[in-house]
Every structure is written in structure tokens, then in C-alpha cells.
Amino acid sequence: xxxxxxxxxxxVYYTYSQQTLSVAESMASRLRERGCRxxxxxxxxxxxxxxxxxxxxxxxxAYRDIxxxxxxxxxxxxxxxxxxxxxxxxxxxxxxxASPTWWLHPCMPxxxxxxxxxxxxxxxxxxxxxxxxxxxxxRDDLRILKKLIVKQGGDYLDGSHFTAxxxxxDSMLALLSYLSTGVTKERYLGFRIPPATLxxxxxxxxxxxxxxLADRLAPPKSW
Length: 223
Ligand SMILES: Cc1cc2nc3c(=O)[nH]c(=O)nc-3n(C[C@H](O)[C@H](O)[C@H](O)COP(=O)(O)O)c2cc1C
Known about the structure:
Helix content is 38%, strand content 22%. By secondary structure, it is of the alpha/beta class. The strands form 3 sheets. Strands 1, 2, 5, 6, 7 and 8 form a 6-stranded mixed β-sheet that branches. A two-stranded antiparallel ribbon has the order 3-4. The chain has a two-stranded antiparallel sheet with strand order 9-10. Helix 1 (19-33) crosses helix 8 (202-217). The longest helix has 16 residues, at 202-217. The mean pLDDT is 95. The structure holds flavin mononucleotide (FMN). Residues 15-20, 66, 69, 100-104, 133-137, 175 line the site of flavin mononucleotide.
């Protein structure tokens, strides 16, 4: 039976190609081992302007679909989303927000949640953490997640980031290859490419991050 005094954690995430979900599930599993009650809440992207392209995997028109998000992402455009009930205002000891990086920023569905009334109600006054999941360029995503959390009244504790491997050019080719074919290949357009999915170290790294968070949630030891 669940211990009602156990710290309660909610991980709010969006995922398109399941990498952020993998991190969220790995963190959830470690947090449960550490005695926390953990729920996952996926933000659904429903915006008629932008969401249809993300309704199937792989992308139907990878270049057009990815590059078509440049301007809205850099402008911080928000769109229609569906928020699961569990992410309505609730009594959580920690809320962790996990976002894929889209054009250096938190993805539109997560920004839309963080800027919504529901996001403010959930986050306001609560301890929060953030996770950026990128192919390579995670830094601005994590910085902006922290900024939006603090703006909504959250008490930001900590953040972490997860990436796939490779250099600037070959990792970009690997991403385009993966999102246009749905499989990991060794070559794309004649170039050797690194794996497109997260580096295997994400498992240990996400468990270590979950440990750091669990340490902060543990009640102070009585003397
Ligand atoms: C529209 C779009 C834009 C992206 N922009 C970036 C980027 O600027 N930097 C980066 O490192 N990865 C970028 N990526 C790659 C994703 O951040 C990366 O594949 C991530 O693991 C996806 O998470 P998900 O599988 O949970 O959807 C982009 C992906 C998409 C679909």
C-alpha cells in the first residue's frame, strides 16, 4: 500500500520521439525506489497550426516540419495543448518539468503549459526541477525552463540535461535522418553519423539526478 507520508512527485513532460519519456521513466523508477510517490503527466499538443506534423513518427516532411518551427520557437509562440487532470493544481512536494529542445528553446507544448494559468497554479509555491533533452544544444532550453518556472512562482531546486552524441554537423545529420526515417542508421547522405538517440549514460545520469532530488525531499533526520 502506498505510504501517504511519502514525498509526492509529478513529472510533467512532452515527447515526440520518446527520448524525454525515457528520461522521465528512468527518473520515476529511481524516485520510487527512494520511497517517493511519482506520477507522470504528458502534455498533449493539439494546436491545429503546428501539432498535426507531430502526430506521426517519423515526420512526413522532415525538413519542412523541423525548419517550419524556427520562427515560432524563437518568438516564444504558445499553442493549444491538453493538460492531463493529474497536472491540475495538486499537492505535490516536487514538480519536475521535462522538455525536448526545439530550436534552442523549450518545445512549444511545454512553454504553453508553463505560461498557462494551469501551469501557474501547479507550480506556484512548489519546489520544482527542470530537465532539458536535446540532440546537442540543451543550455538555453534549461535556462529558459528555469526562468519560466521562477516567473510562475516556483521554487527552482535543480536542473539536468541529456543529449545524444556527435559533433555539430554529424549530430544534425543524425537527427534529420532519424526524424525522417524513424530508425537509427550508420550513414546519411553518404556521411557516417552517430546514433540519434540519447547516449546510454542517460540511465545512470537520470538516476543520479533523481537521487539528488530525493535527497532534497527527505525529511530532516531527527537528532
Ligand atoms: C522541431 C525540432 C527542433 C529541434 N531543435 C533542436 C535544437 O535546437 N538543438 C538540439 O540539440 N536538438 C534539437 N532537436 C532535437 C531534439 O531536441 C531531440 O531529438 C530530443 O531528444 C527530442 O526529444 P523527444 O524524443 O522527447 O521528442 C529538435 C527537434 C525538433 C523536432
